[in-house]
Amino acid sequence: MSLANRSLVTIDDLSNGEIEALFSLADEMADSPNKQAVLCQGKIMASLFFEPSTRTRLSFETAMLRLGGQVITAVDVGATSLAKGESIADMAKVVGSYADLIVVRHPWEGAARVVADYAGVPVINAGDGSHEHPTQTLCDLYTIRKERQTIKGLRIALWGDLKHGRTVHSLIYALARFGATILFCSGSGLDMPEHVLRRLGTEYKGELKSCKELNYETEKSLFPLDAIYLTPSSPHQLAMLPDINVQVELKAGVDALYVTRLQKERQTSTVEEGKSEKSYPVVDKKLLKGKVFEKTLVMHPLPRVDELTHEMDADPRSMYFKQAAYGVPVRMALLAILLGAKEVTVDRDKDSFIREIDYPVYKRDSGVKCSNRNCVSNQETEVRYIKPEFRIVSRQLLTLRCIYCDHELYPHYVASSEWHEGRLENKRYHSADSRFARKIRPENLIIFASENEAQAKRFKPSSYVKQ
Amino acid sequence: MSLANRSLVTIDDLSNGEIEALFSLADEMADSPNKQAVLCQGKIMASLFFEPSTRTRLSFETAMLRLGGQVITAVDVGATSLAKGESIADMAKVVGSYADLIVVRHPWEGAARVVADYAGVPVINAGDGSHEHPTQTLCDLYTIRKERQTIKGLRIALWGDLKHGRTVHSLIYALARFGATILFCSGSGLDMPEHVLRRLGTEYKGELKSCKELNYETEKSLFPLDAIYLTPSSPHQLAMLPDINVQVELKAGVDALYVTRLQKERQTSTVEEGKSEKSYPVVDKKLLKGKVFEKTLVMHPLPRVDELTHEMDADPRSMYFKQAAYGVPVRMALLAILLGAKEVTVDRDKDSFIREIDYPVYKRDSGVKCSNRNCVSNQETEVRYIKPEFRIVSRQLLTLRCIYCDHELYPHYVASSEWHEGRLENKRYHSADSRFARKIRPENLIIFASENEAQAKRFKPSSYVKQ
Amino acid sequence: MSLANRSLVTIDDLSNGEIEALFSLADEMADSPNKQAVLCQGKIMASLFFEPSTRTRLSFETAMLRLGGQVITAVDVGATSLAKGESIADMAKVVGSYADLIVVRHPWEGAARVVADYAGVPVINAGDGSHEHPTQTLCDLYTIRKERQTIKGLRIALWGDLKHGRTVHSLIYALARFGATILFCSGSGLDMPEHVLRRLGTEYKGELKSCKELNYETEKSLFPLDAIYLTPSSPHQLAMLPDINVQVELKAGVDALYVTRLQKERQTSTVEEGKSEKSYPVVDKKLLKGKVFEKTLVMHPLPRVDELTHEMDADPRSMYFKQAAYGVPVRMALLAILLGAKEVTVDRDKDSFIREIDYPVYKRDSGVKCSNRNCVSNQETEVRYIKPEFRIVSRQLLTLRCIYCDHELYPHYVASSEWHEGRLENKRYHSADSRFARKIRPENLIIFASENEAQAKRFKPSSYVKQ
User: Fold this and answer.
1) Model-level pTM?
2) At how many degrees (to 10) do helices C320-338 and C54-66 cross?
3) What's the CATH number for A361-461?
4) Mind listing the pLDDT tens digit for each residue in B205-256?
5) CATH superfamily entry for domain C135-324
């Protein structure tokens, strides 16, 4: 399947084979940057930034210009168009009629998908709230692969704010897909969110162990560690002798340490502020003097503040400025491919990752709404045309995942459209986790936001409703 | 007359023939956009936006880039240069020494004319306050002509906020020039301003009838209607059997419905806010299900908010996204012409509209000032060099129209410079509407802002001053 | 020495010969601007503006585009990256990995040097606080030279706010280097700062006379005058018959009058605001009607406010709009040279100015800090990696000049690292101006911020410490 005219909203929009092909092209771009100056001649890229970002935007714009294309830029679009009450779908349609491709950043989670749905031209997500930032992930993967030739089987430690960092969530899924072992070293109160962990376990087939579970002794450890995710292909010794093996695994050395910044600007709720000081150890020469870190690639998506000292800048292990620089060839390759200036086709049969799980979709018009206040589907200007839509990712504990922002919710009551058709007296609702409810076929499933909604719609409790 | 090196400040800067020629070129641009990539090579367009506007700016920049030209952009210039107290004339001169053409948007009415006067290069008005936005008008006309092959004789309904919309005022004059019949359907408290209506009657030779005058029964009508403007060439039956004919005229169907947004950001005065809620019916499938709307082009300058529902987007009658898309070829044609990259000459003899009325100009240094607080001629930084200047558009009720913002004022007292030369005892002032005063030749006319001014300048009341 | 790949942080980064060569190239650019459109093809310039500036930025961008290069722009970067606590060194490194050259404006004094130190590509200072703005100086010099063929021996009057204007400080040193006579005509309370005057005297070898010293009678004078700086090559008659000669000198006429704007935005301290109204005479036709101004070039860096009337705009002596227009060819020449697209080599032997004085540098890690609160070396985000560094420009009264912002400070206590090595009882500190202290070799010098610091470091006062 060709990549031309497709959009990149989440890292999962690309299969492993496609990512590999993209990286080969990026190598070509990096090796002879001056030969690319005619590839995208006559093409226009629109930078639509509803939230400021100097680094990411300039990286994309540089990439487009180096390909011979041109750029139109709107920074802080929000102030203009939102003040007028315009929807992002309208903005997407209009700008899509000007430009050949749109790069969009937006503070709302899921906004990039909406732009992609309406623009009529390829759209690249340059960050949508705390949701995804797939080109950052591509740069991260490219850096590791460039320096270590592979990602499979490497031990990658993620350090710091694993709760708010959008770059880090996209990265985790991608690392899992490529078969890396992931070490979670989060600061206190900055743990990886539950839904990310759960998804790792269910969709990427590896094995996730929390250190508490493993009796891993942090105080004796080489460095603070919360949990470890083992690639499916690694020897599953942990299951047998877990705590010993973690130590063994770690003594083999960390291949990359991915440091993140404490994302103060994403800690909006006052509840969070009330909590105790969030922090994690500074990454400096002292921390990295141990044998496990001897050959570690020190990575950071930048900007950094105090979590990674300037003294590391000259250290040969430090990769973060290279990582930023690689952003240009990676984005050049991506733009060239999506604009159809370079053809990359991947043999589907040999491709190691294609979205394997095809969850059923729930889009019945009901009271069920995404529980994420920052989701695009909950915004005043967007509810005029967006209908909530979810993937049903589990029936055991009924779990809906918002197709826009990937947040999950767990409704308690359901009914079946089949069993009561036309007959009021048959309208019954059931507890979602009852054996009976779990048998309702997805296409017949009616999901209620609350028991009140069910009753307002004149459904009566069945015997499968727990009291 | 060639169009190269001219400016476009108001839609009246172009004759009908010139607009037709521009549209033919726009067709060419739309048909083969990729053949235009060398037309403006080596030329630089400056986007000078003293007020933010994503849509209009990106449309111009796309157009210039598609012509092979380059762009320099300054958004929100106001914050920078105004903070330093600089005049827009100085900014115009400096930027005019960098770029080959300037596109300017400014919140002050009349600002684009000042920029055009001082820049030394062609200037395009991309919106000056509530005054004009001529390229929007060109896109609107182009859309109608593209879809209906002509504008002459069509019935165009204007819907919503006819008071504040700058796009709508420019459009009205242009429609009148091209011989359309215009139906005014304004929301309550959002009527077309008096001066626009008056001008329609005096300068465009058609016939304007308010529905009140016509005993048009709104409650029985197909849709709310305030007034109708009939093109000079349409059969003048209305004068004889007015109310019946409006119904007849309307039953023939509306060719285009031009919906506007409630321009909240232009309602600055507190008096206005105090007034009752402004509103007008939402344009949706239900409203448009009648026979009169069967083939109606649904237009909107965008951004829209709630006045036009998203359900209309997929309707084949909806033209608003096409309208936005046409902005690029229309602006490409305009830029190519003004930069001299394409020659368009129109035979003056055959041209159906050239500014016909040559009003005398009043620019004597006196106390008469434009009454529009938002006019460029009343701004602190600009009064250093701008002298008020007016067209004398009527002597019956003495009416001065500001050459910058087109607002009108009605001074009450005048004198003649001829009749008192050198002799103090002859200095007399007269009521402007007296028979005597109306005979004073324009070049001799002295106009006073007030009776006080006349007396302060030692004029005495003549017998032609009403007590 | 080639200029390719060098940075322009201060006007002193260029020798007189290099400036002359640059001007010859600028002449070429101005004469055939359309022949330059391939010179910088494939090159990208980054405009990094941490402080808004429409004029300067657009001038640079126009220059780059006219050379066939491309531009990436970030305006008001401060709001984005500083909010995240990022250092300018990090920003410089990242953007330097995208672009081929960086143009930077920043409100902190010395910021451009830091960017140049870290970017890895040539950097042009487009203004760093009140420190320097070297390309403005180049445009000023180019205008004078273009109109008068030379700068040497001309009489240039500087008018207005000589205290805050960054353009004017850079200009003064440059004029001195090229051998002009400088007349200081500052407004009340807006005198040239002491350190600028001192530097003129010590480093540029001319003679500086204040008018008070000369008994120059302002009230009888042709125009207000504070001081005069005489080029080394002019006949030194002033020393003998000072006041007569100033009059004689002035009667010969002023070659250029450089008017400046009152820089309100740089008057931050509340103390200053408390002072009496700052002002200076308006430059208008009346002021310039005298014989001394008959052939005076009237210059202004723009923007102007009220200090130079609009009536002067049409006067043939007025150069300020030409000055702005010359910005493009001058910047084209500079960009072409630094990017290596044009080779300019200057014979060092024949070059009339190369930094002659090589002051010893003090960079010992001690408590001595730049006293300028707005210096880059004092900013929270930058102290993580910047160590204060100073040139020792005088031992008489110990004077340190900050290598970042050029502010001077005068520490009172010093010690020698040689004389106490290893032995605590020998650790003595001395008054910096004592005969003994002045003998300490620069490489052994330890400088204390205060007597307290010396004592905290367990030094005891020597007999060379004044009580």
Assistant:
1) 0.94
2) 50
3) 2.30.30.20
4) 778 887 766 665 554 556 778 888 877 655 544 444 445 566 666 678 899 9
5) Aspartate/ornithine carbamoyltransferase (3.40.50.1370)
